[in-house]
Amino acid sequence: MNQTRSYRHPALSSTADARTRRIRRKVLVCLLLVMLACSLLYVDITFGTVLYSFDDLWRVISGEWIPGISFALGELRIPRSLTALACGATFGLAGSCFQHLLRNPLASPDIIGITAGANTAAVFGIVVLGLSGPELSTLAIVGGLVTALVVSGLTWKGGLSLGRLILIGIALGAMLDALSSWMLVHADQWDIQSASRWLTGSLAGAQWSDVALSMCALLIGGAAMIALSRRLNVLRLGDDLAASLGIRVGMSQIAIIIVAVSMLSVATAAVGPIAFVSFLSGPIARRLSGHGDSALTESALVGASLVLASDIVAQHLVSEQLPVGVVTSVIGGPVLVILMTLAARKGNLE
What percent of the chain has pLDDT over 90? Predict the structure, then answer.
């Protein structure tokens, strides 16, 4: 009786085992983050001065009209929480894409001026043009896209110069922030309040139109980014190696930037800039998933959880309600310092 023996080289076996462990860890982390985001979403909707049960929530979602409860949940809390979920995920995903593409943990949209472009356009729309609603959101989207185009154009030399892009982005962002401040100095009191509320990043007043806008940004942008994820993973290895593997480096960089900036600008137009979410989501997700993984899905889930948790704190755990951007700034600063300190001790800022 013939017996067939399969032989596997120990190195191949070890590589396969390591890949299996990474996949298991990734799946486990994603499941835990989904559970965390869903739990925070439920708490954000039902917790408050009036507590609502799961039965109340289910009846409202099912379309039953319950006097008082349907308005509180259906028109106030659910739109706010879903906007927080979608915008947080979008900020986290877009920020992680920039950090992978530019191979630098500092290369978040907050740092390289794109958010400042959207902010300045919005301030101009409020103070000078007197805009609000969809017109203001559209102007903010255009501002973010134009800023990204200017920064990329100034650094383009057959491809993106990553170091120059960060430096020029920081400089341009500072100029745009100064321009926003100058417009606010010369604005009337009412416009200053409106612009300041928008610049801080707030979920107060979120409506179903904001849910639709932010969900479209997340779903369409997320699908496009999934299609580009293989190119993004290869670009992390360096431009020369990516080109040797058949990747069109320049075109791939442009495509990824357009998708990430579009997603980010739409989310910013819906709720304003919520500080540190784009910055922190990627590093936290990579620490959970292990180095060497792009962790785009995890970054989106971390971003959603950060904004939902911050919204709960902003509404209920302080003496008066705060814009959610204030809470993310207070939490994000120390967390960023801790992450950078730990990374520096290991000699690795990834």
Answer: 24
Residues in the chain, how many? Answer: 350
Tell me, rounded to whole angstroms, the distance of Cα 338 from its chain centroid: 20
Q: In whole angstroms, what is the distance from residue 257 CA to residue 235 CA?
A: 13
State the pTM of this model.
Answer: 0.86
Q: What does the pLDDT read at residue 346?
A: 64
221-259: pLDDT as tens digits: 999 988 888 888 888 777 778 888 778 887 888 888 888
What residues pair up with 160 in beta bridges, in sequence order? 156
- Check: CB of residue 208 under 8 Å from CB of residue 183: no
Within 10 angstroms of residue 221's Cβ, the number of other Cβ atoms is 23
Q: How far apart are CA 343 and CA 175, in angstroms?
A: 30
Specify whether the CB–CB gap between 92 and 278 falls below 8 A.
yes
* Run of H or E residues at 319: none
Tokens for 350, please give them: 């990834």
Find all residues with CB under 8 Å of 250, minimum gap 6, and list them: 158, 159, 160
CB of 217 closer than 8 Å to CB of 90: yes
74-95 b/e with 16+ CB inside 10 Å = b? bebbbbbbbbbbbbbbbbbbbb
Backbone angles phi, psi at 160, to 5 degrees: -80, 130
Rounded CA gap, 275 and 91, in Å? 10
| Long-range Cβ pairs for the range 122-126 (8 Å, 24+) | 122/195, 122/198, 122/199, 122/269, 122/272, 123/180, 123/183, 123/184, 123/195, 123/198, 123/199, 124/183, 126/187, 126/191, 126/194, 126/195, 126/198
Helix or strand holding residue 318 (H, E) = none
